[in-house]
Amino acid sequence: xxTTKQVPGLLAASIGxxxxxxxxxxxxxxxxxxxxxxxxxxxxPLFDPNDGGKAFNEYAExxxxxxxxxxxxxxxxxxxIVHIGLAAKLTSQNRNARPQxxxxxxxxxxxxxxxxxxxxxxxxxxxxLLIHLYSFFIKHRIIGTEETMxxxxxxxxxxxxxxxxxxxxxxxLALHLNHGFQSGFQSLGLKKNPKWNALINKTGLWFSILIPxxxxxxxxxxxxxxxx
Amino acid sequence: MRTMKLTLHIWRQENRNxxxxxxxxxxxxxxxxxxxxxxxxxxNEKLIKEGKxxxxxxxxxxxxxxxxxxxxxxxxAHGPWYRTTTCQLHxxxxxxxxxxxxxxxRAAAFPVIKDLVVDRSAFDxxxxxxxxxxxxxxxxxxxxxxxxxxxTAEQAFAAATCIGCGAxxxxxxxxxxxxxxxxxxxxxxxLPQGQPERMQRVLNMIAQMDKEGFGNCTNTxxxxxxxxxxxxxxxxxxxxxxxxxxxxx
Lengths: 228, 249
Description:
Chain A is an all-alpha fold and 228 residues long. Chain A is built from 8 helices and no strands.
């Protein structure tokens, strides 16, 4: 056997790129958990009338000021860039791998539908992400404003179009995670045992339902409050 | 015995560089007991009698084990039957008046040679890159001197049943060959004889696979569904973890 083949850099081989795609995807899943935990503070005024958004503002203040947050924040931005960049690279390779398609399009009826539209769901989530970053992150951290973060959120979520857009984006995120979560484990070569596979699939399913649901419920509640 | 009249839409392409197109043929008197390939034989006899060019298609054993036959029938690699090669698909699946679309396996790495025949030598080059072990393991009786647990033997055998037909590539939306390559890697990687070259094998075969221009696996699982031998996605997980191991070593 030819023993001159050296270990390529992770990004030089197809499987390596898939592995990095999986690692960054699962890393971004942990970011979703952290982000949602913070967002849930937006609902505190529901239970504590004296709060008035104070808990959420303190959290937002901590996130923007604490040097401890900078490292995960930078890692998160790198994670996004690598995940999206690799997605573009892999997708273009995949397109080139079949220059001529089939005349008759069929579905085997067994494969997950969402797995075929990761590019579509991912792209829409990316558009949401950019608008979302602009409305909150850029407005506060880069442009600067007198408003508190809670006020910015409250104003944004009193706009029905923004709320609908937000909820739709969460549905697409759910579809993206529905395939992405377990797919990440497969790319890392961790789905080798039927018992573990079932656990990974189940966890992935619940993750893809609960996390986007948690995100989506906040603007819906805040919108109802704003019209009440 | 049921006979049927079919409308066949078949991809015709003179050679590698020619522009192909779908052509329509009417075929009457198709017997339900015919295999799909026998139905094409009947069509070809008719075409020859009419002085036309018969449809070129690959076939060899016609008993479902050689991996030669392969075409996309109504959008499904090897047709609609589960775990069945094209030669084992029988015409009782179809009914009188059906329209059937027959296309070659589509992938940049599998160029069409003529009509439904594609060049699958990319698979041979991947095997040549590392799908073997370099030492002589002796004759048949010696095999029992290396004891292998039942479960491991079964897993290795399940991977080894891959016939290299290319249906995984044909059906994958990305024309990825990862199910095929992973079956070969897992089959040898699970056995003691495959251990000394295990890491080198993964690197060599993946490097060749990438060079051939196959796409990347997106874990849709379509390959596993269409594979006539039921090769499992678990082999891809094994390949991925071996590749990761080779990185860390």
